[in-house]
Write a structure and sequence with these properties.
This protein is mainly α and about 250 residues long. Helices cover about 80% and strands about 0% of the residues.
């Protein structure tokens, strides 16, 4: 498994698309800091705290770097004696590692640029803002991983990259009101996305990254809920993906 992950990471590092995506996201991050945040480092850090949802938008680009032509590579890997389970899990771990690297480059690059070029407030203000940012990242990380697992599962089920990518983005856009309508109709419970309701967050984990939640509920229980929901989605989608992959006929 470890050798497989190393091979996947090496293949990603040799693809020009990896550096194009990294450069594009780094440019977008700096443009955000330049255009929508104030002129102080403290304001930049606080502004980054409100961008956790943007990580969900970038997940398909990240998954595509590893899962490109998933069906063809799976057939080739099987011919070399690599099991479907090892291939699926190896690619999933590679996706998560590449995602962590990209996150470190993006956040670290913007913070470094801001620290050098922006004005500074009191050290206490900046320290508090950095602690809040660390909390937001700790809460967002498992949710990002869960959605990466969802995209990886969709890539394993659907051969067309356009299909699974569209399904993912449609779920972010239209699944919210559908789930709310179904739950209200069947149970009479109104699910407010601005409130940290457990049922709503389990069904729609990206609601955990709504700005109101990230900024208004900086508690240990909310952090644990993010990890429980995110890892639950990661484990559930992995189980479904493996089940589908075991039954697929390679063509």
């Amino acid at each position: 498994m470890l050798n497989f992950i190393k091979a996947e990471l090496w293949k990603v590092s040799r693809r020009m698309s990896f550096y194009v995506v990294m450069g594009f996201l780094l440019l977008c991050a700096h443009l955000f800091g330049l255009l929508f945040v104030g002129d102080s480092f403290h304001q930049l850090v606080s502004g980054i705290c409100g961008t956790m949802f943007a990580g969900l938008v970038a997940v398909p680009m990240l998954v595509e770097l590893v899962d490109k032509s998933f069906g063809e590579t799976l057939r080739n890997e099987s011919s070399f004696g690599i099991s479907r389970e090892e291939s699926y899990l190896g690619k999933l771990f590679s996706i998560l590692l590449v995602g962590l690297a990209l996150c470190a480059v993006l956040i670290g690059g913007v913070l470094l640029s801001g620290y050098v070029f922006l004005s500074h407030d009191s050290a206490q203000k900046e320290l508090v803002a950095l602690v809040v940012l660390a909390y937001c990242l700790a809460a967002a990380l498992p949710v990002w991983c869960g959605m990466a697992g969802l995209c990886h599962m969709l890539a394993a089920i659907f051969r067309s990259e356009a299909v699974w990518t569209s399904l993912y983005y449609l779920s972010l856009t239209f699944l919210d009101p559908i789930i709310v309508a179904v739950v209200v109709t069947t149970t009479g419970i109104y699910l407010d996305p601005s409130q940290p309701r457990l049922l709503y967050n389990i069904l729609l984990p990206w609601s955990l990254l709504v700005t109101e939640n990230m900024s208004g509920y900086l508690t240990l229980s909310f952090l644990l809920q993010c990890w429980a929901v995110g890892l639950g989605w990661l484990g559930g989608t992995t189980a479904v993906g493996l089940m589908v992959l075991r039954r697929r006929r390679l063509r």
